[in-house]
Amino acid sequence: MPVNADFQGRTYPPTEPYRVSAAKIREFAEAVGSGDPVHTDAALARARGYADVIAPPTFAVLVAQQCDAQLIRDPEAGIDFSRVVHGEQKFVHHRPLTAGDSVVGILHVDAVRQAGGHAMVTTRTELATEAGEPVCTATSTIVIRGGE
Fold this sequence. Notes:
Elements: E1 18-19, H1 22-32, H2 42-47, H3 60-73, E2 84-93, E3 102-115, E4 118-129, E5 134-144
Antiparallel strand pairs: 1-3, 2-5, 3-4, 4-5
């Protein structure tokens, strides 16, 4: 089944809240090799004006990919995950993700197009606190490889 081009313009409902914890921030910072103590030292983070430790900028991918999964798992979208290659990821941060945040995401399918026998799907996830404060806009493009 080819990727359903009619999904362009579709918006999915908000995800369940993702609770950002200091432990997850620490794990992520270690995994990506970020040694900035603002990710692990709450006292230092507060001294710099934050409510608690802040996440490395790419931490937002954890929540954004949970949003993207709504599209991937939607049988009507026609996306065969075994053929997916991650093409591009961009973040526009409105403020840092902070330990204690409870974040929801709303997924928008901005583009579905064919290129060289492959499908390319661009999504935009708007991440915000449960109170509605914008945190990050994550844009992702995946390539769904065409047939052999």
